[in-house]
Amino acid sequence: MEALKQELKEKIIAALNLEHISVEEFDDNETLFGDGIGLDSIDALELIVLLDKDYGIKLTDPKEGKTIFQSVETMANYISANRTK
Amino acid sequence: MKKSFINGVGCISVQKTVDAAFLAEVELTTKESVVFAKQPSYVEVISPSFIRRMAKGVKMGIFTSTQALKEANLAMPDAIITGTGLGCLEDSEKFLKAILDNNEQFLTPTSFIQSTHNTVAGQIALGLQCKGYNFTYVNGAVSLETALLDAKLQIETEEAHSVLVGGIDETAQHNIDVQRMAGNIKKQEDLPCSILEPTTKGMILGEGASFFVLEEQQKESSYATLDAISIQNSLELNEVEQYVKTFLNNNKISLNDIDLVVLGNNGDVEFDVYFNQVSHFFNQTPQAYFKHLSGEFYTASGFGLWMALNILKEQTVPACVKMNSIEREMYQTVLLYNQYRGKDHSLTLLKKC
């Protein structure tokens, strides 16, 4: 799980060009949207594509995203339970 | 008819054109086949959360437009007009590459949103919350001149009292590769080269952004009036002199009224002959060139315009841009002539105010 979280942080930083954040500073439980990392709706689309492309997970219900994309911790839990690749 | 005063300028280029004295320190671009613009620190002007999505062209455009507005002491222009030859090329390439790499699946929105030609004008308007006229011209090497012409007409017809006008072009790897294959970029073995006495084909590719605030009112910051612009898509070599003569006649000025001619020589032996025609026609007039400092790109004439405006303001022609030794006591009227590969000819007339 730790390796997955590390990999996820690297992928999020790269996909969203979060140049001002390092993997070391990226807390597992930091809120991704709003007050935490400060992601927005365009980033949400990027994360949906990232799940599909890299882990074979298709999010069909947009409401699910709110819970899944809460933090790196919640994303990693969802990926390890649902990944197809 | 209202005059168009150029009251503020901003320029990012291969040279130190941000927070530096006018061409005090220059580096010739004649050693490399592709040269890149010096990037300033953007964090003072653009929020970090926006910067992360912006390609170089967008950042350069926002930075230079902010500089121009600040100098003109203008908070909100009535219109924003930009010109670009290739638009936000880096993101266009990124998006197209993603289509190919991912077999037309998994396309993400960011590079698509940022890849259109009018992204720069749109992002500036969003930042300023400017809901006025917003237009982008994609007309090859006269993109900026077309934008300037539109701005001038907006002011003359009183559609707008102030217009933010700019030209932006960025380099991107695939385009560099394609231009090399087409032979448009100088070969490594032909470098370093002479821009004024070229012996080889091709240009040195550059990039940059320049913005100008045009207003109907003269201000303390005014550089010059933009008196006339002419655009001609195609000219034969033997038609260039007549083109210039007609332009001068239409604007009721004689050859001797021009105090400085700024030419867009880019060191391509095949096409710089057009500039030689104009240079010969003005053989008793001071002449300057600029693409040895900016490199060649579709809106490189913006660097030439920025340079001409600074010459008018400072009343001195830096030695590094002089093409001949002729000097004038005062520089009141400047004519810029540009073309690219024998197409997209333009004449721009500036008068000191």
Which keywords apply here?
heterodimer; A: 85 residues; mainly alpha; Non-ribosomal Peptide Synthetase Peptidyl Carrier Protein, Chain A; globular; B: 353 residues; alpha/beta; Peroxisomal Thiolase, Chain A, domain 1; ten-stranded mixed β-sheet; 11 helices; 10 strands; 31% helix; 20% strand
Could you explain how this protein is built, in words?
- The complex is a heterodimer of chains A (85) and B (353).
- Chain A is mostly helical and 85 residues long.
- Chain A has a single domain (2-82), classed as Orthogonal Bundle (Non-ribosomal Peptide Synthetase Peptidyl Carrier Protein, Chain A).
- Chain A has four helices and no strands.
- Chain A has helices at 2-15, 41-55, 62-68, 72-82.
- The radius of gyration of chain A is 12 Å and the shape is globular.
- Chain B has two domains: 5-215, Peroxisomal Thiolase, Chain A, domain 1 (3-Layer(aba) Sandwich); 227-352, Peroxisomal Thiolase, Chain A, domain 1 (3-Layer(aba) Sandwich).
- Chain B is built from eleven helices and ten strands.
- Chain B has helices at residues 48-51, 56-71, 89-101, 109-114, 119-128, 143-156, 173-181, 240-250, 273-281, 291-294, 301-314; strands at 5-12, 79-83, 133-137, 162-169, 208-215, 224-234, 260-263, 287-289, 333-340, 343-352.
- Chain B has a ten-stranded mixed sheet, with helices on both faces.
- In chain B, helix 2 (56-71) crosses helix 5 (119-128).
- The longest helix of chain B is centred in the first third of the chain and has 16 residues, at 56-71.
- The radius of gyration of chain B is 19 Å and the shape is globular.
- The A-B interface holds A 15-20, 38, 42, 45-46, 49, 52-53 and B 48-49, 52-53, 102, 105-110, 113.
- Chain B: Residues 42-219 form the Beta-ketoacyl synthase-like N-terminal domain.
- Chain B: InterPro entries: Beta-ketoacyl_synthase (IPR000794), Ketoacyl_synth_N (IPR014030), Thiolase-like (IPR016039).
- Chain B: Pfam families: ketoacyl-synt.
- Chain B: One of its GO terms (molecular function) is 3-oxoacyl-[acyl-carrier-protein] synthase activity.
